[in-house]
Design a protein that fits this description.
about 290 residues, alpha/beta, about 30% helix, globular
C-alpha cells in the first residue's frame, strides 16, 4: 500500500494517542460542516444535466477516424461521477483544478437519487461514455468517482466491459468492500447494495482477468462514512490498483480539497499512475 501525506500526519508515525486523534477528528468534522454548507448552497446549480462536449476540428479539416490515445492531439475526456443523493455541483472546485491542469474535456453525469439498482446506473454511465467518445473523437476516457459514484464506475469497468473505454479510474472515498454506516438508510435499495456482504459487493470480488483499467483509490482515515475506513481501498488480485491514504480530512472534503485535486491530476497523467506507484504532491512512502 502506498501512502500520500497530504495534510497532517507523517506516514511512518504510529497511531496517534486518543487526545490528539480526537483533535484531528474534531478538525475534520468542522471542515466537513463547512464543506456541507457550501455544497448545499451550490446544489441547485447542479440539478440539470450537463451538455456533453463536442469534438473540435480545425476549420476545413476533413472528418477522420477518432484520435488515438497517446498521439499529440489526443486528450482523454474526464468523466466526473457524484455520490449518493448528490449532483455534479460537488465537482466545481475539482473541475477548475483539472482545467488548470490542462484538461479541456470535462463532463459530469447526474444520475437520479431514485435509481434503485447500481447496475442500472452503471449501464447509464456506459451509454454516457460512448456518447462522449463519439462527440470528442476519443477512444478512451478517465473517470473520477466520489463515494457511490466510484462504485458505479468500478462496476461498469469490471463487470460491463468498461475497461475497454476507461484508462484510469480514480475513486474518492468509495466503499469498495461495502460500508456498514447508517443502518437506517438501508431502506433505499441502492444503499443496501453497498453494504458489506451484499450480492453486488460479492460480485465485485469475482475474478476479473485481463481488466485493462488502472485504479487509484483515495481513502481517508477520518472518513466517517466508510465503516471500516479500510473498505475504501481496492483489494483485488486481478486489478492494477494503487491505494492512497489522505490524512486530516473526512468524506465530504475529498472532492474539494486542493491537495486531493492536485493529486488526482497527477494520478490521471503521471508516469507513476501508469506504473502502479502512488501519485504525490510530496514524497510518497510505503507504510
Amino acid at each position: 500500500m502506498k501512502v500520500l501525506p497530504f495534510l497532517s500526519l507523517p506516514p511512518r508515525l504510529p497511531r496517534l494517542p486518543g487526545p490528539r486523534l480526537s483533535t484531528a477528528l474534531l478538525g475534520a468534522t468542522v471542515l466537513e460542516l463547512v464543506v456541507l454548507t457550501g455544497h448545499l448552497a451550490a446544489y441547485p446549480f447542479g440539478l440539470t444535466q450537463e451538455r456533453l462536449p463536442q469534438e473540435r476540428r480545425a476549420p476545413g479539416s476533413p472528418p477522420g477516424p477518432p484520435t488515438l490515445p497517446g498521439s499529440p492531439a489526443a486528450e482523454r475526456p474526464v468523466v466526473l461521477l457524484h455520490g449518493f443523493i448528490d449532483n455534479r455541483s460537488v465537482f466545481v472546485l475539482l473541475r477548475r483544478a483539472l482545467a488548470r491542469h490542462g484538461r479541456r474535456h470535462l463532463a459530469s453525469l447526474n444520475y437520479s437519487p431514485l435509481t434503485r439498482d447500481l447496475r442500472t446506473a452503471a449501464e447509464l454511465l456506459g451509454r454516457h461514455v460512448e456518447e462522449i467518445c463519439a462527440r470528442t473523437g476519443q477512444r478512451e476516457v478517465d473517470i473520477v468517482g466520489h463515494s457511490l459514484g466510484g462504485l458505479i464506475a468500478r462496476y461498469y469497468v469490471q463487470r460491463l466491459g468498461g475497461d475497454h473505454r476507461v484508462r484510469t479510474l480514480v475513486t474518492l472515498g468509495t466503499p469498495h468492500g461495502g460500508t456498514a454506516v447508517a443502518p437506517g438508510a438501508g431502506v433505499h435499495p441502492i444503499v443496501r447494495q453497498i453494504r458489506g456482504g451484499s450480492a453486488l459487493i460479492e460480485e465485485l470480488h469475482l475474478p476479473a482477468p485481463g481488466c485493462r483499467t488502472r485504479f487509484v483509490s483515495f481513502w481517508s482515515e477520518l472518513d466517517q462514512v466508510m465503516v471500516p475506513v479500510g473498505t475504501a481501498r481496492v483489494h483485488h488480485p486481478d486489478l492494477d490498483a494503487v491505494n492512497v491514504r489522505v490524512t486530516g480530512i473526512g468524506h465530504l472534503a475529498l472532492p474539494v480539497h486542493p491537495a486531493v485535486a492536485a493529486a488526482v491530476g497527477e494520478a490521471l497523467e503521471s508516469q507513476g499512475a501508469r506504473e502502479g506507484t502512488a501519485p504525490s504532491t510530496g514524497t510518497p512512502s510505503v507504510a
